[in-house]
Automatic annotation (TrEMBL):
Location of this chain's protein in the cell: Cytoplasm
Protein name as catalogued: tRNA N6-adenosine threonylcarbamoyltransferase
Cofactor: binding details: Binds 1 Fe(2+) ion per subunit.
Residue intervals of the Gcp-like domain: 26-315
EC identifiers of the protein: 2.3.1.234
Gene3D superfamilies: 3.30.420.40
The protein's enzyme class: transferase
A molecular function (GO) term: kinase activity
Length: 351
């Protein structure tokens, strides 16, 4: 399966194999991040992102095929992210995939980007259904019960900012650059996580939702109160912010695992963490502890498979193809596309 990802600021393509027993293997996984294109703007500029995808995608696809040792004629099918995401970029990837599918007369699979994040743990770790997923990325923060391919139940979500977005905005406030997650984590390494007490919005309420925008405001007020910030101030704010969000995420994960244990007849629950923020070591450590306390298995894919990549899209396509699910060339790009929408269901497609 060839997989194409262009929903945000990564131009990515990969070739992935899936054997009859459902085991996956990554034959190539090429990612070109557009950090330079967007650096001056402190965030992703949609129009620039789409143009860069146009410029680079053909080369990235060719490289993915070359590294995998296959020609386009040898692939079984082509999958591309069809949403959710920046629609200009999605159109570039989806249209390219359609052209390849039409030219090679191979099936097309229009992949939901969130499903790709959700199923990655099966590619690498062979995780069996059902499992609980915590998706924490640049655009999403949600708990999802993953029952099967196309079968998702959202248990909670952010009511404002996504966690990755909160990292990115905190980094911007502290002049740490973009993308913010790794920069905040690096700065936090030399800081005191107990120096500042930041709020934990919603946490007292019995629901599996998140709220991060108040936290961002608290960070801004603290930074303004201390200005001009010393290097140590920046490190301490970063560390205190990171400790606060790690605590929020871990508390909610414990609640979500408790619900999973109540509702699903599975001996040992599995918590899968997906999305770019899963690369954060503090959050990982906090989640490991919670999972251990709940007797759950914690699965965190390697960072290169947590952030956007083509392999996850190819894998989601391969899982769908194995169930006989394909899309026709009229498949549309969707800026918004919730995982629990009716068109995700495997039986909503003509096999
Ligand atoms: P979505 O998948 O919701 O459409 P996206 O594809 O932009 O959003 P990802 O590529 O999965 O998101 O993740 C990018 C986000 O992960 C960014 O917000 C980035 O700051 C964050 N991130 C990456 N590494 C780390 C880290 N070490 N610590 C915290 N956050 C991180
Ligand atoms: Mg990105
Ligand atoms: Fe993503």
């Amino acid at each position: 399966m060839l997989g194409i990802e262009t929903s945000c600021d990564e131009t990515a393509a990969a070739v992935v194999a899936r054997d009859a027993s459902g085991r996956g293997a990554i034959l190539s996984n090429v990612v070109r991040s557009q950090l330079d294109e967007h650096a001056a703007f402190g965030g992703v500029v949609p129009e620039l992102a789409a143009r860069a995808h146009v410029t680079f995608l053909d080369h990235i696809v060719a490289q993915a095929c070359r590294e995998a040792g296959v020609t386009l004629a040898q692939i079984d099918a082509v999958a591309a992210t069809a949403g959710p995401g920046l629609v200009g970029g999605v159109l570039v990837g989806l249209t390219t995939a359609k052209a390849i599918a039409a030219a090679t007369e191979k099936p097309l699979i229009a992949v939901n980007h969130l499903e790709a994040h959700a199923l990655t743990a099966r590619l690498n770790d062979g995780v069996a259904f059902p499992y609980l997923m915590l998706l924490v990325s640049g655009g999403h923060s949600q708990f999802v019960l993953v029952r099967g391919v196309g079968d998702y139940e959202r248990w909670g979500t952010t009511i404002d900012d996504a966690l990755g977005e909160a990292f990115d905005k905190t980094a911007k406030l502290l002049s740490l650059g973009h993308p913010g997650g790794p920069a905040v984590e690096a700065a936090a390494a030399g800081g005191d996580p107990k120096r500042f007490r930041f709020p934990k919005p919603l946490l007292k309420e019995e629901r599996l939702d998140f709220s991060f925008s108040g936290l961002k405001t608290a960070v801004r007020l603290q930074a303004e109160a201390l200005a001009p910030l010393s290097g140590q101030d920046v490190a301490d704010i970063a560390a205190s912010f990171q400790a606060t969000v790690a605590d929020i995420v871990a508390t909610r994960a414990g609640q979500a695992l408790a619900r999973f244990a109540r509702e699903l007849p599975v001996a040992a629950p599995t918590l899968v963490v997906a999305g770019g923020v899963a690369a954060n070591h503090s959050i990982g450590a906090a989640l490991r502890q919670v999972a251990q306390e709940a007797g759950a298995r914690l699965v965190v894919p390697p960072p290169a498979l947590c952030t956007d990549n083509g392999a996850m899209v190819a894998w989601a396509g391969a899982e769908r193809l194995a169930l006989g699910v394909t899309d026709d060339l009229a498949a549309v790009a969707r800026p918004r596309w919730p995982l629990d929408g009716p068109e995700m269901k495997v039986n909503s497609h003509a096999a």
